[in-house]
């Protein structure tokens, strides 16, 4: 799951640093930033080279952000996180909302590297700067879940849902955290909420099926899990958990996800 609309970020981050492109006065900084970011996504090696050349030409924060995203796409999540975190700390003249977004992206990179402590530090900084961004609360909840802090994950997701009521991905994540805490009825209620918005939400069906099985509702669980299997990729970890649950008797503890929710990528939209 991941977020942050890059088009919006491009306008926010490139424009304040237009003066840094004085060596290339004919270049529109927002366009150059957008082109660099697109290349960082599609061809990260070339994107990294482009970002470095732009940075050497005075590209400033826009070039540095592009370089970090290219590193992320190349799989160097730790270095991407370090660069994004450093960029956010140095942008003291920019808005709290923009700095929070870059801190949050650093957290996403550290999530991908499974560095929970560093991810939490970046996400804490982001929330201090902008506590009204539901995305950041969701990000931190994923980190908490990944380290087994499910009560904290539920708390963060409740904050997110207060800011974005009815949001399906937050409801599914809270259902998963509540299921891990053994609060199966609350997990079913959250999954129900997600399914009201999207009856074919595969992860919501999976969570409800797992929680229903733990409650002893075999028929309801079987229906949810079988429908989820028609929607999930057959080779996915979620599909494997659904099949394992179907083979288990009613009332059995549901199979746990070994690594917690999937970390988001910097710049991804919510699923």
Task: Set down the secondary structure blueprint.
Layout: H1 6-14, H2 29-42, H3 44-56, H4 60-73, H5 77-90, H6 96-112, H7 116-129, H8 134-146, H9 150-163, H10 168-180, H11 184-197, H12 202-214, H13 218-231, H14 237-247
Helix pairs in contact: 1-2, 2-3, 2-4, 3-4, 4-5, 5-6, 6-7, 6-8, 7-8, 8-9, 9-10, 10-11, 10-12, 11-12, 12-13, 12-14, 13-14
Helix content: 55-70%
CATH homologous group name of the domain at 166-258: Tetratricopeptide repeat domain
Q: Biggest sheet, open or closed, and with what strands and sense? A: none
- Count the strands? 0
Main attributes of the structure:
disordered N terminus, 14 helices, 271 residues, mainly alpha, Serine Threonine Protein Phosphatase 5, Tetratricopeptide repeat
Explained architecture:
- The longest helix is centred in the middle third of the chain and has 17 residues, at 96-112.
- Helix content is 69%, strand content 0%.
- The protein has a domain at 166-258: Serine Threonine Protein Phosphatase 5, Tetratricopeptide repeat.
- It has 14 helices and no strands.
Could you give a short description of this structure?
With 271 residues, the protein is mostly helical.
């Amino acid at each position: 799951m991941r977020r942050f609309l890059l088009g919006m970020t491009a306008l926010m981050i490139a424009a304040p640093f237009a003066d840094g492109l004085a060596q290339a006065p004919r270049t529109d900084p927002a366009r150059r930033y957008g082109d660099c970011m697109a290349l960082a996504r599609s061809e990260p090696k070339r994107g990294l080279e482009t970002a470095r050349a732009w940075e050497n030409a005075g590209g400033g924060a826009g070039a540095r952000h592009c370089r970090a995203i290219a590193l992320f796409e190349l799989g160097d999540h730790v270095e991407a996180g370090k660069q994004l975190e450093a960029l956010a700390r140095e942008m003291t003249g920019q808005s709290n909302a923009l700095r929070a977004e870059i801190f949050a992206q650093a957290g996403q990179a550290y999530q991908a590297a499974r560095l929970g402590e560093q991810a939490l530090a970046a996400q804490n900084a982001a929330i201090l700067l902008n506590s009204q961004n539901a995305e950041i609360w969701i990000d931190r909840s994923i980190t908490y879940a990944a380290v087994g802090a499910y009560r904290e994950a539920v708390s963060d997701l409740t904050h997110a849902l207060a800011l974005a009521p009815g949001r399906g991905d937050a409801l599914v994540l809270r259902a998963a955290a509540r299921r891990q805490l053994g609060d199966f009825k609350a997990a079913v209620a959250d999954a129900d909420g997600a399914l009201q918005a999207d009856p074919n939400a595969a992860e919501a069906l999976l969570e409800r099926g797992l929680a229903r099985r733990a409650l002893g509702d075999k028929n309801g669980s079987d229906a949810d899990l079988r429908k989820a299997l028609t929607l999930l990729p057959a080779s996915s970890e979620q599909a494997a958990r659904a099949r394992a649950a179907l083979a288990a008797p009613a009332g059995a503890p549901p199979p746990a996800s070994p690594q917690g929710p999937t970390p988001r990528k910097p710049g991804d939209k919510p699923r």
